[in-house]
Design the sequence.
DNA sequence: AACTTATTAGGAATCATTCCCAAATGCAAA
DNA sequence: TTTGCATTTGGGAATGATTCCTAATAAGTT
């Protein structure tokens, strides 16, 4: 009933069990074009699994993030948003309605060796975020 | 006692009053190299103004953000961090200790006209964020 | 089928942030 | 410099996202 592939999260998993909740949450997340909050995932998954709990949604989303199967985005609404697309892309946030869209971008792979050399820090990921007004929000400024 | 310049926030202010709290909060924020949370600003300002309230700190930081005098960063700790440096720069977040540093970078001014044309969105700001491990956190992975 | 252990449901606890309002203060005009 | 009034503050309550806790349940193995 539950496709095994959905939880083929690398072979190094030890003791990770395949549950209906995990399968449906990941399936739901991957089907979204927007980037839902935990609450929104909860509501969406409830349609197929009415008894699911909010705790499980939070726990599972955190687990997917730790497994590298989902991105956790820090929205300007102060909430965590989740993105099931882990390919390299950027995000656009509308500062008015606060929705988040994907942005295909050709961000040049910046050379961080200079920064790393000066600081001793190690850069592992880079994210580009755009902010502005979306189509529906009428390109109005709020200043 | 309180330098006027600190609150010279553009001439278009109407009815904005210069208070000890506002002056000290902005002064404190600008003196920080790290990017403190509201609570940290509260603690820092308390040293000079013991009676200041947390409400006022939150209210004032939001006001500075709205006035364009401070940046509000969405930390991976889920908390809002504030940056009194409004010049164009990026940020590096250590995924282990969660501190945030400034990064001087020459992010090319990307051409968003293609994205804007396709979507009808209007890009007003772009931010580049780097994530990794800082010097003190020993360049260890946590996987 | 029985056993072992990871996982879940559900509610309580935590904690950042916002809201509310009476008291205090900045500032302008007299 | 005082007075008057609108803005701002302090502090505590309210809100809401996220985490924590634990007994019950379900996955996977023998």
Sequence:
């Amino acid at each position: 009933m539950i496709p095994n592939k959905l939880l083929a999260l690398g072979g190094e998993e030890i003791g990770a069990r395949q549950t209906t909740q995990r399968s449906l949450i990941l399936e739901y997340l991957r089907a979204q074009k927007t980037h839902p909050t935990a609450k929104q995932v909860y509501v969406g998954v409830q349609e197929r699994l009415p008894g699911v709990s909010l705790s499980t949604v939070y726990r599972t989303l955190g687990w997917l993030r730790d497994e590298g199967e989902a991105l956790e985005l820090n929205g300007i609404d102060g909430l965590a948003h989740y993105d099931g697309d882990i390919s390299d892309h950027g995000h656009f946030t509308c500062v008015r309605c606060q929705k988040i869209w994907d942005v295909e971008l050709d961000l040049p792979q910046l050379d961080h060796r200079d920064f790393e050399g000066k600081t001793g820090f190690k850069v592992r990921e880079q994210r580009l975020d755009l902010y502005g007004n979306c189509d529906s929000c009428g390109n109005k400024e709020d200043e």
Summary: Residues 54-67 of chain B form the longest helix (14 residues). The helical segments of chain B are 20-31, 38-46, 54-67, 113-119. Residues 17-20, 37-39, 54-55, 58-59, 62, 78-80 of chain B lie near DNA strand C (CB under 10 Å from a C1').
